[in-house]
């Protein structure tokens, strides 16, 4: 069970006083600095004397704490005789009430309190002004004895109980005395949810960054497991790709056997199929494409005709043609060149019966 030790900071004529809260109730109290517990987890809350902290209430910007503190410092500068640079200003909140509490205390006093606590081995999680331990009354004023000093709380005021000051502030009305049970319940509530924590800005509690080595080890094992799983997935994918490639190669070999001559042994399906294709179609562009280009050129040249065709294994086509004049020979050559072939006369064209006859050699360019 977590306990909370509430320490009332001492004044020149008042010693240390303390309360220990556990399970939502005050379990122990005493004077003098208490022994710190080493058996249970314990948090610390310090209570600043009412006469050392000046409290104000005002409606402040609610966008950010920095804006609220800036506005509060401007108000404190107008209401304080001390230079604002020497003062520490803190801003709190009480539930949904628009007016927010503002605590003003000398910066040197804050440092002295924190040094005193540190000398006793305490780094408080929060520091509250004593009047804000009392509940906010609907009207009028409440009074209670806290840590050896009388404290008065109004709806928008909080101060140490001093006869003349109290009468001046309350207009002569006597504050209502807060019963002990109600006071302890109010202290427990205020410590659990401080309406104003003086540990802000330069005096905010420094958070310690610790290394959770158990978490680091767990993350290390998790990273290693992730790496191993990723590696296994990659290996399985490689095996699957290799198996698929082997299967594709087997299917290619079977398909190649259907395209080769019957009884031919398969050693290199791609090379053997290419060789058979060359044998079937001929070299170069093949007989079919070469002959088609020749006949297209002849059809495009009026008065020309083909007499003979001869196709060599190297892809060269020899075609005997007859034309009306030498210009048609050039026309045939241009037509074949446009189709991607080179055409050249083989020897001289002979004149016979008013026509020219000869051979053209056609091959891919």
UniProtKB/TrEMBL annotation:
Keywords from the named record: Cell inner membrane, Cell membrane, Membrane, Protein transport, Transmembrane, Transmembrane helix, Transport
Protein transport in keyword set: yes
Primary residence: membrane
Mode of membrane association: Single-pass membrane protein
Single biological process term from Gene Ontology: protein secretion by the type II secretion system
Gene Ontology cellular component annotations, sorted alphabetically: Gram-negative-bacterium-type cell wall; plasma membrane; type II protein secretion system complex
Regions that span the bilayer: 219-241
Protein's cellular compartments: Cell inner membrane
Residue intervals of the GspL periplasmic domain: 213-363
Residue ranges constituting the GspL cytoplasmic actin-ATPase-like domain according to the UniProt record: 47-155
Top-level taxon: Bacteria
Sequence similarity: Belongs to the GSP L family.
Record's protein name: General secretion pathway protein GspL
Lineage, top ranks: Bacteria, Pseudomonadati, Pseudomonadota, Alphaproteobacteria, Sphingomonadales
